[in-house]
Design goal:
This protein is mostly helical. It has helices spanning 2-22, 25-47, 52-83, 89-111, 118-147, 151-182. The longest helix has 32 residues, at 52-83. It is elongated, with a radius of gyration of 16 Å.
Length: 183
C-alpha cells in the first residue's frame, strides 16, 4: 500500500503539471484522480488494525473525496468548453501511458487484498477506475493528434468525471453497508 501511495502521489504531480502544459482536461482529471487515490491509500494505511467501524468511515471519506473530484472535473469540462482550447495530443498519450503502467502495477499489488476489507476494496476500485481513465486519455490523445479537434479531450474529461462519480457512489454504498454491519 505504501508503494501505491508514493506512485500515485508522484503521478498526481506529473499528470496535473502535464495537463496544465498540454491544456488537457483529461490529463488534469486523471491527475486529480491520482490525488484521491493517494489519499485513499493513506486512509487505508491509517485504518490498518482499527475497528470495522473506523474502516467503514475511512471508506466513506475516500468515497466523498472521489465525489468532489468527479464534480470538479465536470466543472472543468464546462469551463474548457467555454474557453475552447485544443490540447497537445502527444503529451496526453505519453503521460497517460506512464500513468497506465503505474496503475497496472498498483492494481496487481492490491488485487490479492481487494476482498479483505472495505477500505482496501475502495483503494482497489480507485485503481481500477484509473486504468479505464488512462486508456481513455490515451485514446483521446490519439484522436486529438490525428484531427486537432479538442472536443475529444472534453468528452474524455466528462466521461472520467462521470465515471469517478459512479465509483464514488459505489464506495459510499459499500461503506454504508459496512458501517451498518459493524454496529
Amino acid at each position: 500500500m505504501w508503494i501505491a501511495l508514493i506512485l500515485n502521489g508522484i503521478m498526481f504531480i506529473v499528470e496535473v503539471t502535464a495537463g496544465i502544459i498540454a491544456q488537457s482536461t483529461g490529463l488534469i482529471a486523471d491527475g486529480l484522480d491520482m490525488l484521491t487515490d493517494a489519499s485513499a491509500y493513506a486512509i487505508a494505511l491509517a485504518a490498518i488494525g482499527r475497528s470495522a467501524n473506523f474502516k467503514a468511515k475511512a471508506a466513506t471519506l475516500s468515497g466523498s473525496l472521489l465525489m468532489l473530484v468527479g464534480i470538479g472535473v465536470l466543472a472543468d469540462v464546462v469551463r474548457r468548453a467555454i474557453v475552447g482550447t485544443t490540447p497537445e495530443g502527444s503529451w496526453m498519450i505519453a503521460i497517460a501511458l506512464v500513468a497506465l503502467v503505474v496503475n497496472v502495477v498498483v492494481l496487481r499489488l492490491l488485487s490479492k487484498q481487494r476482498r479483505d476489507e472495505v477500505h482496501i476494496r475502495a483503494a482497489w476500485i480507485f485503481t481500477r477506475a484509473d486504468i479505464v481513465a488512462n486508456s481513455a486519455v490515451i485514446a483521446s490523445g490519439v484522436a486529438v493528434l490525428l484531427t486537432s479537434i479538442g472536443y475529444f479531450d472534453l468528452v474524455v474529461g466528462a466521461a472520467i468525471g462521470l465515471y469517478v462519480v459512479k465509483e464514488a457512489l459505489e464506495i459510499l454504498r459499500e461503506a454504508k453497508k459496512a458501517r451498518i454491519e459493524s454496529e
